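agent: user wants the structure for Small ribosomal subunit protein bS6 from Acetoanaerobium noterae. delegating to structure tool.
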Amino acid sequence: MRNYELIYVLRPNLEEEAKTAVLDKVKGIIESSGEVVKVDTWGTRKLAYEIEKLTEGYYVLINFKSTTEVPKEIDRNLKIMDNAIRHMIVKLDEK
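agent: tool returned. relaying tokens verbatim.
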């Protein structure tokens, strides 16, 4: 199992149920063959640059351990979600 870090940005005008649904879906994918280490919700913050005419986004950071297939599945799902405007998955170094 490898350590990964996922950060994703959602549209800021989403209702709380939609934000929770995205988080639950991502956690479900991770828990299928891994474990969620930490979920850190940053909330609504200003974007560094405008994306799809939006200047703010709702940020969520997730640290998790999993096999190499899980990040590919998360990436595939977040790419097709209309509510997610950006995401990034990084493999953390073993220390």
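agent: one observation worth passing along. Residues 2-91 form a domain with the Alpha-Beta Plaits fold (CATH 3.30.70.60).
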